[in-house]
Request: fold
Amino acid sequence: MTSVDLSNTYINWTKRNLQYNKLYSADKHILVQDDVMEWLKAAPKDYFDLVIVDPPTFSNSKRMQDVFDVQRDHVALLKLVLKTTKVEGTIIFSNNFKNFELDEAAIPAFKIKDITKFTTPFDFVGKLHRHCFEITK
Reply:
């Protein structure tokens, strides 16, 4: 498993959560503190079977080359993720932008399925402002 986040705090939370759940192993979990867009450009091609992508709605960090806006930048992000995903691999793409619209025509995937309703707990129906998609390469 590889986890990439710009924030060292979130990388530490990931490690701690894996440890609490007795899932962490230093030789099996790679935790990377980096700009994910830059990391993906150098990432191995056709490598991952499953990728979970949960970007912020907006990010303006001095450690990034550009400002990230999920509506504007999701196609570029998903194209980079698709390059790292094996054929028939799966990407779970989720975000919390209330008015988000996925540009399906611009994403070179085999299949895209909106799984928002399926992944929303019954007691949060109508309360969560998020979108979730299953993308198959």
Observations:
- The helical segments are 8-20, 36-42, 70-84.
